[in-house]
Each structure stands twice: as C-alpha cells, then as structure tokens.
Specification:
Elements lengths: L7 H52 L17 E5 L4 E4 L3 E5 L32 E14 L2 E13 L5 E9 L1 H53 L14 H50 L6 H25 L7 E4 H9 L5 E5 L5 E4 L1 H18 L4 E8 L3 E8 L25 H4 L4 H11 L3 E6 L5 E8 L2
Parallel strand pairs: 8-10
Antiparallel strand pairs: 1-2, 1-6, 3-4, 4-5, 5-6, 7-9, 10-11, 11-13, 12-13
Helix pairs in contact: 1-2, 3-4, 4-8, 5-6, 6-8
Amino acid sequence: MSRLFGSVRARATLAATLVVAVALLAAGAAVLLSLRGNLESRADSEADGVARQVAARIAARTPYAGLDLPDGDDNPVQVVDEDGRVLAVSEGLEAISGTGASGVTPLHSPAAEPEDDDRETPEPGEPGELGEIDWHGQGTATVDGEREEYRFAGAEVTDARDETVRVYAGASLAAQQDAVRTASGAMLIGFPLLLAVVAAVTWLVTRRALRPVEDIRREMAEITASEDLSRRVPEPGTHDEIARLARTTNETLAALETSVERQRRFVADASHELRSPIASLRTQLEVAAAHPELLDLDGAVEDTVRLQRLAADLLLLARLDAGERPADTRVDLVALAREEAAGRPMVTVEAEAAGAEVAGSRGQLGRVLANLLDNAERHARSAVTVTVRREGERAAVVRVADDGDGVPEGDRERIFERFVRLDDARSRDEGGAGLGLAIARDVAVRHGGTLTAGAAPGGGALFELRLPLG
C-alpha cells in the first residue's frame, strides 16, 4: 500500500478523487437543502390558502358545525378559541401536535364532554374581522390512523360573536420527503459512479502525462548503469515543464560529460607532465649512485624546483575546481603590480589611477600577475608594460603588454586551456607546463572578473584583467 501511494500518479488520482468527492458532497447538500426549502415554501403556501379559506368562512358568520372543512388527509384544520378549546376540526383528525392545542374533539360534537356554554347562537349580521397569516410551524397529525408530518399556518379571525379564534391549517410534507429521499437515493448511486469515473480518467491522464518522466528516469538509470555520459534523455515535443526538465537534464549531462572529459585530460596531461621531471630526476640520482663524480647537482635541483612548481599548480587548479571561494580582503592592484614587477628589469608599471582596490585573495591575485608577467617576459623582445587603471566606479583594469610576436587571433582563447603550448617545438624547460594562463583565468573568474587576450598597440600580446572594485 505504501509503495502504491508513493507514486505521483496514485497520489494525483487520490487527490483529484477526494477534491471531487468533497465538491459533490457540498453540492449534494446544497441541492437537498434547496429542495427541502422550496418544498417547505410550497407547503406553507398551501397551508396559507386553506387557513384563509376557513378563516373567511368563519368571518362570514358560518356556523362551526357547517364550515365544510377540507379532508384531514391532505389539509388537517383545527379551530380553537382564546382559551384553547377546540371549536372545529377536519373529519378523521385523531391527533395533532405543533399547533399549541392538542385537542381534536370539537366543543359541540357528540363525543365532547358536556360543558356549560352560555354563548348565544349568533344571529345573522356583519361579517367578522379577518386577520392575516401570522404564524408558521411544523408538526404532526394523525388522520384515520396514519401519522404524517405537516407544515401548519395560523391566522386569527373574529367570529360572529366578536370573539377572536385561531385557525390552524396544515399541508402534508409527504411529497417533500419523497422528493428528498428520491434525490438522496440518486446521489448515493450516482456519486460513487462519478467518483469512479473521475479516478479512472485521472489515472489514465496522469499515466499519459507522466510517461515522458518515466522515459527520462529509465534513460537516466541506463546512463548510470553504463556510465556512458554521451547518451541523452528523450525530449518530448511539448513546451511544458516536462520538456524543460528533459532539456535541463540533457544540459546537465552535457556539462557533466565535459567536466569528466576535462578531468580525464587533466589527469592524463598531469601524468605526462610529471613523468618527465620525475624520470630526469631519477636518472640523475641513479647515475649519481653509481658514479658520484658525475652528479649534475644543478640539474637535479632544477628538476626538483620544476616538479615543485608543477605540483603547486596542480594543487591550486584542484582547489579552484572544487569551488574554493577567495578570501574577502581588500587588495590594492597598483601596489600588487609593483610588488610582482620588482626584480624584473624588463617590466615597467604605469598607474593611471590610485586606489584601484578589489576584494579577494591577495595570494591568488598575485599569482595571476606573476603568471602574466612570466608569460610576457618569455615572449617579449625587450619590454613589458603593466598598466593599472580604474574604469568608472565599477571595475579595475590591469593590462600586461609585451613587444613580442603576439598571439594569433585564432589561438587567443585556446591558450587559456590547460596544458596548451602554442609552440610545440620548444622544450618544457623554456615553455613550462602550459598551466599559467589557465590558472590566471580561473582565478579571475572566481573573483567575478575576466581575463582576455588581444593585440598590444606595439604589435605584441596584450592580456587584460578586469575585476570589480571592492
């Protein structure tokens, strides 16, 4: 059971069925209440008419014994005086409740107990005063042994003796009760059928709507099992949320595939780059072990330093790939540029604006400038110029330009890839491992900035670092 209702399809079907059930119950109750109210109003109108007819006859000085009251089965009538004594009732009326007077035996009927009644027989004269209907109520009446519910109407009238009497006339509620029972029975039969139809339609509709989701899930499961990140989930031709989910999933798979492929290339290139200094260092140590007099101490130290630098670069790239956030300190780019340029005879620093401060890691930003200067010195003929300026109130710009041969336009993005060296013929000792510019761009991006390559005014390479002001 828990597995069944763990399905979105089952929960959607249950929720839709419950909502429709509540709506049907509310609508059914409203219909029954409205039907009951309408039928009660009709019964009240019928009772009003009968009460007026009887009251009009009494006001016309008709004797109580000759009122010709309606049949008690349909409209039981009871006439009482102010003392509650019964003056007239419908034929066959055996019991009555709800009118305030329970008597059903007229005062002058043969069945009545003998009473002293010194009222004189009315003489013909002016008609009595006929009042309006001033009361409605509900009660029961037993006529010829059958007890039913009635709506009663009451009215006052002045009879021929100038005495005020009350007329109670009833209208049967049997039709109302039959109609309510019929409507209730129809609802009891129709509601479950309608709920079954709603549940079935919802089940089928959600099945069709969720089919693409199941296809996406199945394909993702197969991708996970096969570890083939080149596969993609099917994208439905609709423009709904499921289609957007499929597109986002494919974009995620593409990004993951690119990341994994980049990681594989990184590991392969790192292994290749590490193999050379390690092999050289091992060879020198083995030669030194066999022939100490042949030890190339300077070469061993140089290989060790290069290996140390490469390991540091790889460690920094790993931290950047892991999403390490830079420190939030204020860094003066003018001071930092002059610090990194110190001891480099070829480098000149030009500060066009003071106070070019940014927020970030001084160590990482210093690494960016050092890598850019190393790259510029390696390719410059005679001079490298560093320019620091502010661009409005938003950005600080550092430009590193050399007077070398420059970077071909088609390679200005490729040089920022890891382990890329444009001059494949040069030795690794001269060109490095091809990580400096990749590290510089990654650090710039982590600081919310950009690093681009272009052409310097003098024809050499121009690297522009743009960072938001702190």
